Amino acid sequence: MIDEHGRIINYLRISLTDRCNLRCRYCMPEKGIDNLGHYTILSLEDIARLVRIASQLGICKIRLTGGEPLVRRNIVQLLHYITDIPIIDDLAITTNGILFADMAEDLKQAGLKRVNFSLDSLVEEKFRYITRQGDIAPVKKAIFKALELGMEPIKINMVVIRGFNDDEILDFAKLAFDYPLHVRFIEFMPVGDLLFWKQDRLLSSQETRRTIKNHYNLLPAKNIEGNGPARYYRLEDGQGSIGFISPMSNHFCAECNRIRLTAEGGLRGCLYDKEEVDLREALKKGYSDDEIKELFIKVIKGKPSRHNMNDGWGEDNKRKMYQIGG
Ligand code: SAM
Ligand code: SF4
Q1: pLDDT tens digits for range 286-315
Q2: CA 281, 284, 287 angle in degrees (round to 5)?
């Protein structure tokens, strides 16, 4: 489907849960959140049905996220449901990696070929600080497990936060030099738990790139699978690549190909959208596939031309990042 601004919409990001086994300072309140009950989130069968309907409108790429998607029970079953839908040619997951290593083989067998790990520090104490409770060891184990299983691409997402991890930019770049990993440096956005967000913690991609360029020869790279908004470079003689995601300094809305589904079944055109269409309600009312298709079309047609994040996150936005699915 093509939206009102000429963009091809072929990518659906699905939040499987609000729950998380970490409490990243920029994302979740310390005490966690009121977990959604089983009756307020979409069942796996509902999600599979929605994906099938969306695929008939041209959605062929799916990302599972959250909250932490791997805490959702029976996620492997969901992967099977989704890989059984013929039009879906790309299925990925964004995870903090804590639970990944033990599940990796089942996930791979169910059709998961690629994975994004979120990791903001390589230093044990700093990792514990930013996640408030996390142990870095299982995350490292997860990344090596994904490498061992030959998953490709394996992406590492680092949110660059001035004064917290900007001194590790070169260590992350070195990961991409030493291993076939695709490290993406993400600009800190004023979303999520805003108590931690501060304008001066934002470090632009241009600054990050300058730091890396002083130490590595950056060569243009082809886009890495996933159709994401990152700009990629190879490090001369290195194994992987680095990428920059710049939602703040250089928004990529003109190329945005995605819509989003929350764990409760809210369908939205943009992370920053204040409107959602309630698909869970539609499912409850017994809507037919065609009726649900109309709701997808409504959201795609209404997808805003761009976000207004630089004007402030809009505290009036009812939802947080972990609810929408980052
Ligand atoms: N729990 C999973 C994880 O951490 O990978 C998936 C959900 S998490 C909300 C998805 C991604 O959003 C993570 O990479 C996280 O770092 C990113 N994120 C959350 N809040 C952010 C913010 N304020 N600015 C930039 N990225 C953010
Ligand atoms: Fe959990 Fe991911 Fe948010 Fe961290 S960024 S609290 S891991 S949902």
Answers
A1: 999 999 999 999 999 988 777 666 555 445
A2: 90
End-to-end CA, the chain: 23
Of all protein residues, the one whose alpha carbon is nearest to atom 4 of ligand 2 is: 24
Q: What is the SS3 assignment for 197?
A: coil
Q: Say how many Å lie between the CA of residue 17 and the centre of ligand 2.
A: 11
Summarize the confidence of residues 171-186 as an average pLDDT. 97
* Distance, CA of 267 to CA of 282 (rounded, Å): 11
Residue 114 burial (CB count, 10 A): 19
pLDDT on residue 319: 62
In which band, very low, low, confident or very high, does the pLDDT at 225 lie, cut at 50, 70 and 90? low
Q: Whose CA is nearest to atom 8 of ligand 2?
A: 67
How many CA within 13 A on the CB side of residue 180? 13
Q: Which CATH superfamily does the domain covering 11-324 fall into?
A: Aldolase class I (3.20.20.70)
Structure tokens at 95: 């995870």
List strand residue ranges (DSSP E) for the chain, in order.
11-15, 61-65, 90-95, 114-118, 154-160, 182-187, 218-220, 231-235, 241-245, 258-261, 266-268, 277-278
pLDDT, one tens digit per residue, over 120-152 is 999 999 999 999 999 999 999 999 999 999 999
The CA distances from residue 313 to 33, 198, 207, 250, 308, in Å, are 20, 12, 23, 16, 8
Please answer whether residues 203 and 249 qualify as being in contact, where contact means their C-beta atoms are separated by less than 8 angstroms: no
Q: How close is the Cα of 22 to the center of ligand 1, in Å?
A: 11
